[in-house]
Amino acid sequence: MTPSGLLEDTYVAALQYDLVDVSPEATLVGVVRRPTGWFRTTIDENFPALGPPEDLLNGFKQRHEDFKMQGLCDEGAHNAAWDGIGFEDRYQTHLTEAPNAQDAVAELTDRLRNEEHLVLVCFENTSQKRCHRTLLREHITGRL
């Protein structure tokens, strides 16, 4: 299998409720800045540096709430906030400019090259909402 074929992503509830089939050999890698206790018990390890930076996360949450107050459904408010604050570009900048994020990406890339199967995990169900972990997966895959 190619290194990029060893990288997957999912959300924590899918793991908790057996909604996804994950190889028992896979390492579950959290990519959240503020993991909860129940999140930590589901994953094998967490890289807070790969979560969105605090200013981006806080700005996103505020815009999300603003859009919900305007009457948008949760998914619509989520995606409108994502676009409204330029989430994708700002997160990509974080990955390429923050030293701790660069180090974490380099470590995960090396592990994939050494044929470790990794599954990136965060909170969002991406069937309706955009999520940073899919951007991260694409970013890492581009480095392989």
Would you kindly provide a written description of the structure presented here, covering whatever features stand out?
It is a single chain. Helices cover 51% and strands 11% of the residues. The mean pLDDT is 96. The protein has one domain (3-143). Helix 2 (37-40) links the parallel strand 2 (27-30) and strand 3. The longest helix is centred in the middle third of the chain and has 16 residues, at 54-69. The protein is α/β, with parallel strands linked by helices. The two termini are 13 Å apart. The protein has a four-stranded parallel sheet with strand order 1-4-2-3. The chain is built from seven helices and four strands, in the order βαβαβααααβα. 28% of the residues are buried.
Q: What is the topology, as strand order, of the major beta sheet?
A: 1-4-2-3
Unreliable sequence segments: none
Number of helices: 7
Helix coverage percent of residues? 40-55%
Number of DSSP strand runs: 4
Write the H/E string, N to C: EHEHEHHHHEH
Largest sheet: 4 strands, parallel
Strand content: 5-15%
Shape: globular
The domain tally reads: 1
Report how far the terminal alpha carbons are from each other.
Answer: 13 Å
Protein name: DUF488 domain-containing protein
Domain DUF488: 25-141
InterPro entries: DUF488-N3a
Which descriptors apply to this entry?
7 helices; 51% helix; globular; four-stranded parallel β-sheet; DUF488 domain-containing protein; 4 strands; DUF488-N3a; 144 residues; alpha/beta
